[in-house]
Amino acid sequence: MRTDVGALALSIVPELPEVETIRRQLAPHLEGRTLTSVEVLDPRWTRPLPSAPIEQALRGASIERVGRRGKYLLWSFSDGQHLLLHLRMTGSLLFDSPTEPLHTRVRFELDDGHRLVYVDPRRFGTGFLVSDAAELEAYLLERIGVEPLTAAFTADHLRRMAHGRRAPVKAFVLDQRRIAGVGNIYADEALFRAEIHPLRAAGRLSLAEWARLRDGIEDALAAGIDAKGASIDDFRHVDGARGSFQDRFLIHRRAGESCPRCGTTIVKIVVAGRGTYVCPNCQRPPRRRRAVSSPARAAVL
Ligand SMILES: [Zn+2]
On the chain, which terminus has fewer CB atoms closer than 10 Å, C or N? Predict the structure, then answer.
């Protein structure tokens, strides 16, 4: 079957479940280990900061915990430093790769003889080192909003954030500064689960609808984590394997197929510049506003 290659190229960004999958796989290999060497082969990775001081600061640092915030992987060191890795579009981390892949950007050597490489063909991924918890919180506060799958992620909080917003609810869900970690795939899946049309104005959703959407986001993310993420193009596990969530999409990339809930044909539209999949029956489109004063104008003419 032919697929829409243009759309594929647009939505390969790892989202929360893909990053969480990597975190779970990396943690047992990294936690408690010391970095004996870090070599940044591509200075773009640490830009705008120079790479050499970061290599130096990480050498000999002991990894206490591998965490995640939104789409950031967060390595926390026993000396108080934190390294924030963002994979962006095509970044992956490979543990003990038998050969060094093309597009290797960073090499990490561990004190137990194992090694990890960061590979990124398109070079958008970043590594940012902060020296303490306060700096970390300041960095994240500017970039990411409420974290799904935590107690703070409530319908009430979402509704308050969306108050007065006319932007489509899908754009609101995709905005990392409001909700951390949800990208194009999981936004479509969540809105479908909640039976909310992506073009509805965020500020017009009722509290009950936000409650459904909150649940939809959490259920879609949990299903993604359960399937070890979706691999559409470049996403790989740390051992090079692929996730399987792409086979379990309810709506995303299923244009022309039947809605799993009602059987209506799924359609593809564009919302916030992104290919978006909806069931026109389960997700009722917002009512169109009538053009103002057309009868009056007609009378004058
Ligand atoms: Zn339907």
Answer: N
Residues 6+ apart with CB under 8 A from 174: 182, 183, 184, 187, 272, 274
pLDDT score recorded for residue 234: 58
- For residue 16, how far is its CA from the centre of ligand 1 (angstroms)? 26
Cα dist from 37 to 97, 108, 111, 129, 194, whole Å: 17, 6, 9, 15, 47
Which H or E element spans position 19? helix 16-30
Ligand 1 centroid to residue 168 C-alpha, Å: 20
Strand partners for 269? 276
C-alpha radius of gyration, the chain, whole number: 22
Q: d(Cα 214, Cα 154) in Å, to the nearest integer?
A: 7
Contact status, residue 171 vs residue 183, Cβ threshold 8 Å: no
Q: How far is the CA of 45 from the centre of ligand 1 (A)?
A: 43
Q: Which residues of the chain have pLDDT under 70?
A: 1-12, 232-236, 289-301
Give 241 Cα–ligand 1 centroid separation in angstroms.
33
Query: Which residue's structure tokens are 């990339």?
Result: 253
Active site residues: 14-15, 71, 274
What are the beta bridge partners of residue 63? Answer: 77
